[in-house]
Sequence to fold (293 residues):
Amino acid sequence: MNTRVEVETVKTKMVKGSLLQTTEEGKYSVHPLVQAFCRKEGGSLGVGDEGDKAKKKFNDHYLERIKIPSKQFITKDKACEAISTFRKEKANITEAFKNCFEDTTLKEEKLSAIDVANSTEVLDFLAKVFSPPRECTRLYEKCCEIARDCDDKGRLADSLNSLGLRQLSSCDAAHLREDHKIFHIFQEAHDIRMTLPEEKQECQTRAHTISKLGFCYFLQGNEFEEKGRGLIQEGITMRKKLGVPLYVAAGYSELAREYYKIFSNSLIIHQVLTKEIMTVTVFGYLILISTFF
Fold:
């Protein structure tokens, strides 16, 4: 096809034959059956190399694209724009992850896609925006599965942390007290991370795991509250060393929630400690606000 006219003619025929589907944004997608056929029979059709090259370009492009709205999401005035961008490109981003996780035979591409999914900005964004939540859960379950198969402990710890966060986002406190599944996910991530070389332990992911594990401990009841609070404080200390104010603020916010849950049942104690709770909370938000100006 050497001219624009030829391209448009073929495209029109493919739409009429239901080989191409139009999207709400006016774009085109290949019918799932056609995709499956091309993946399976690309080699026998003599287009295997061309298909692999095109697929890699597609994957690289959209795995890079997901980083843009993820970074915009935590800025002062571009969160809505980031969500809108993701919704428009969700199908292609999801397909890029699927290609890397299920279709490619290259271990490097699988691990690279896991790194993108587990990066701090992308994780925070997908955990809050990816809908329906079950699709996001499946993404991180696949990351865990591949990391286990590759015996990659570092990426497994990262993926378990991501999976725990996604599931934690959908649960209330009562559910967490009864169902210890999320607690065990964070515990496993923590235990694996402790077996890694020391230089791989000082990172945002471990600080995040420690804080969320602390939160899970705290919800188990009185005998575990002190341990939970200690873990959250340990996470804050690590985040301070790593020097990212946004995540230090998040740690203080978690600590403030614990103090509030402890004392909110007693009006007198609650009134006495209101100033302390507000100090912890405000300290966190001051750090958070400073990142936006």
